[in-house]
Amino acid sequence: EDVPSQTFDNKDYFCGKETFPVYESIFTAEGETIRKIAIEIEKPPQIEIHVWTIRKGILRHLYVEKLSKREFEGLPYFKLITRTTLSQWKIFSEGEAQISQMCESRVCRTELEDLVKVLYLEKSEKGHC
């Protein structure tokens, strides 16, 4: 039987932890891929966007920008990919810092893909939080 999802104040919760929407945008031009991963944070209300520039599988440039929700809404190409907790986002950010150093001179496609997978929360069975 279906159990309705638990919501409090229209926010999604995962094992009692609040979750936040994560968006992705991928743009490819002239042999270069620009991949953006963004999270919508409520306090302060803003969007944090992590921008990766990848050329031939090598992470060439990484930077973080912060925008207001209104500025973000005007950006094209972003799609919602998941919701995550702040603790998972912290793991993502720390992993990103390690990968940016490690991948300056070698191909890191799988490492970057695995890093994004950190953001996806696994649905736990009821009572296993």
What count of domains describes the coordinates?
Answer: 1
User: Total number of helical segments?
Assistant: 3
The main sheet comes to: 5 strands, antiparallel
Strand content: 35-45%
Give the ordered list of helices and strands: EEEEEEEHEHH
Q: In order across it, which strands form the biggest sheet? A: 7-6-5-4-8
Number of strands: 8
**Structural class by secondary-structure content:** alpha+beta
Q: How would you describe the oligomerization state of the chains in this entry?
A: single chain
What do you see in this structure?
The chain has helices spanning 69-73, 86-102, 109-117, and strands at residues 7-8, 11-14, 17-18, 20-29, 32-41, 46-55, 58-67, 79-84. It is of the alpha+beta class and 129 residues long. The strands form two sheets. The protein has a five-stranded antiparallel β-sheet. The radius of gyration is 16 Å and the shape is globular. The chain starts with 6 loop residues before the first strand and ends in a 12-residue tail after the last helix.
Structural key phrases:
129 residues; alpha+beta; five-stranded antiparallel beta sheet; disordered N terminus
Write the layout of secondary structure elements.
Blueprint: E1 7-8, E2 11-14, E3 17-18, E4 20-29, E5 32-41, E6 46-55, E7 58-67, H1 69-73, E8 79-84, H2 86-102, H3 109-117
Antiparallel strand pairs: 1-2, 2-3, 4-5, 4-8, 5-6, 6-7
Helix pairs in contact: 2-3
